[in-house]
């Protein structure tokens, strides 16, 4: 993986600011001068994110890593339209995101499955709300997604009858039910054991390539980010800012579990850790 400093990149992949007159990218996700300030009472405020700009390419797997409080989840929520930026804006294929957006499916740290609904009923909920397709089509999609995620046999079970890994599989399937272009994932595997996490990483990698989705992924786990990502954004804390981007070098586009045993994987994890430690030690 190649390290690209945000302030020093000659290719301008991660500019610290952009001209307001520059046209948004016609494809992919364009984050333009986005910042976030939270009010703390009448006279105090905290800067969660300093202004930052970057472009995430269509079909890319882009991860953000950083310690708690560095603004990576805030940035993800802004991109997904769940949080309003203080300045700047987010554009998908040239069109500005102004709120929750049907082009984006969201997967949270916890599965957020409704306990009084079956797994299948949870998958159908976004379609019930958005009316994005007929319920007949939604059920057909749900069956395909449940099969893809390996939990078809549990579609009539309640969420509390599923393991943590199975609940997250159901949450990913629910996010895909409306066929969004983009998956925004906020530490979706952080509560799982390492074995289950790695197995779901493998499945997510296969899903991303077969479904040709853009995935934006937040994690604390450097090895996970290296395994999954085309590029990794390293976030610096207090206030949150994008310090650098680490770009994948020499990895195949479709990766499998064998990569974790190879010397080049350990080398790239070490490089990513060096970029992280330089900021956070």
UniProtKB/TrEMBL annotation:
Bias class Basic and acidic residues marks the residues at: 7-21
What residue range is the signal peptide? none
Q: Where is this region: Disordered?
A: 1-25
Return the SMART domains for the record: AAA
Q: Which GO terms describe its molecular function?
A: ATP binding; ATP hydrolysis activity
Main role? Involved in beta-(1-->2)glucan export. Transmembrane domains (TMD) form a pore in the inner membrane and the ATP-binding domain (NBD) is responsible for energy generation.
Name the record gives this protein:
ABC transporter ATP-binding protein
Q: Which organism is it from?
A: Bradyrhizobium guangdongense
